Amino acid sequence: MLILIAEDDELILKTIEHKLLKEGHEVILTRNGKEAIEKLKEEDVDLAITDIMMPFASGIEILSAIQSIGKKIPVIMLSSMGQEEVVLNAFDLGASDFIVKPFSPNELMLRVKRFMAK
Amino acid sequence: MGEITSVHFFVLVLSGILLLVVVLIIGVLLYGFFQYRKSVRLSGWLENINQRISEAIVYDEQEQPDHHAFEQLTGNSSFRNLFLQKLVDSEKKFSGMAKDKIRDLFNRYGLRHEAEQKLDRKKAFLIAAGIQELTVMDSRDALPGISGFLLHPSPQVYQEAQYAMVSLKGFEGLNFLNTAKEKISEWQQLRLLFSVATIPENSLPAVRSWLMSSNDSVVVFTLKLIRKFQLLSFYPEVTGLLVHPSSEVRIRAVQTLVSLENPSTMTDFTEVYPHQPSEVQSEIIRAMKVSKDKNTTELLKKELSENPASGLKVHAAEALFSLGHHEYLVQLMRNEATSDELVQIVKYALQEKI
After folding, report:
1. In what order do the strands lie in the sheet with A75-80?
2. Which residues of B touch A18 (CB under 8 A)?
3. Which of B126, B194, B267, B347 would bridge with B121, disulfide CB 3.0–4.6 Å?
4. When comparing pLDDT for B344 and A40, which is higher?
5. CATH code of A67's domain
6. CB distance from A82 to chain B under 8 Å?
7. Contacts of residue A105 in chain B, CB cutoff 8 Å?
């Protein structure tokens, strides 16, 4: 499965990358929303894991971009505590799941496996 | 002769200035070069550290690649301090087993030494940082050293020490409340409250003594503790605080009594109400509004008509509405004997509800 990760925190990005590679997935790393949108247009991504707050374009803008290019890509949002309204907005825009930071990488993998099973 | 001397002098001065400019340019270039080298080195270190932490989180010990280069860097004290700082930051980003892996790295590389060294420094922010690092990394062995900072003159240090005690020892760590002289800020109270996960059965005498503390912030914090853990047996002691010299304590006592949900609460409030300052009376009326206890109706009607404070009248009108006295309020507005001020207050209080 080809998974895109959009995250501006280098440690979180690297950790998710290692975890997905360990599970046998291919990954595309992006460090801002704009770069993520470009990659989503270019590549046939099976799943996207994206932070909400990022430079240049937010996770919400990534969801809007996915809608506008007409691709059906499941998206797991990474949100911080206190972003409930943004998360609700994300679900309206088609987010498939969300996970709250601080988060457990193992729990994130369980969510990824759930999408693989579908 | 005189002209030659002055030209000679002019050339000398010009040469001196040029030399100075050249030296300055070289100085700036050297400074820039060393800064650049420093930033390149720092960014390389950060990359190494992120790689090491993420691998430690994801892979088991036997699956991890060789860390020879990293191990060599850990001999450098600046690198160790940066590594420690990044570990503390990382701990806030992950939950579950990942947290344990981060703490394992802290112990494996002996970074406790770096954190403890900060406790010997003079600057308050460094001591506080050292305490925070030891707390985040769950270094329970460091508690005896940290407890010495509970009486430090700097709020930054003693607050961090208080948090460390509670974070690492749970309820038992709250013993500093027995002697706390300084005000515990609202933010600090929240941090402490959040860190206490359970209350042991033998804790009741301690809680009782904190309720009698001469430090009002200790009493307020204890009331929050009673509220959080629903310590119903403290109902009489909390009721007793309705005559405490501090209005702040009385207000918190009202809020605590409401959360303890005793059938006699509204009767108790009605009895003490006339002897309270206006801010406590407002809190009691707000509590009556939430309780919807019909026995409070007479007091609310009286306050709406007779109390001179407009704010309190508004609360009373809202409470009466929530108790279902809609008709009474409408009649009061229509009554010609009702003052314009009271009509306006009732209208204001009910503008969105009627």
Report:
1. A26-30, A2-6, A47-51, A75-80, A97-101
2. 54-55, 57-59
3. B126
4. A40
5. 3.40.50.2300
6. no
7. 57-58, 94, 96, 98
The pLDDT value given to residue A43? 93
Separation of alpha carbons B192 and B161, rounded Å: 11
Nearest to B136 by CA among B199, B182, B79, B90: B90
Q: What is the ipTM of this complex?
A: 0.90
Kindly list the residues from chain A whose CB atom is less than 8 angstroms away from the CB atom of residue B58: 15, 18-19, 22, 105
B296, B297, B298, B304 alpha-carbon torsion, rounded to 10°: 110
Section B156-163 average pLDDT: 96
Domain ranges of chain B: 82-195
> CB distance from A115 to chain B under 8 Å?
no
Coil vs helix vs strand at A98: strand
- Tokens encoding A90: 């994300």
Kind and range of the H or E run holding A2:
strand A2-6
Split at pLDDT 50, 70, 90, the class of B351 is: low
- β pairing state of A75-80 and A26-30: unpaired
Number of domains present in the structure of chain A? 1
- Residue B354's pLDDT is 45
Q: How far is CA A17 from CA B57, B164, B287, B302, in A?
A: 12, 34, 52, 68
pLDDT of residue A71: 86
Q: A77 φ, ψ to 5°? A: -95, 140
- Domain range enclosing A17: 2-117
Flag whether pLDDT at B207 surpasses 70.
yes
What is the per-residue pLDDT for B353? 52
DSSP B262-303: -TTHHHHHHHHGGGS-HHHHHHHHHHHHHHT-GGGHHHHHHH
> How crowded is residue B253: how many other Cβ atoms within 10 Å of its Cβ?
27
pLDDT in tens, B246-257: 999 999 999 999
To the nearest 10°, the Cα dihedral for B95, B98, B101, B105?
Answer: -80
Strand, coil or helix: what is A30? strand
Q: Measure the CA–CA gap between B351 and B354, rounded to whole angstroms.
A: 6
Contact A18 B93 (CB under 8 A): no
Provide the shortest C-alpha distance from residue A9 to chain B (in Å): 10
What is the per-residue pLDDT across B252-291, written as a single tens digit (0 to 9) for each? 999 999 999 888 899 999 999 999 999 999 999 999 988 8
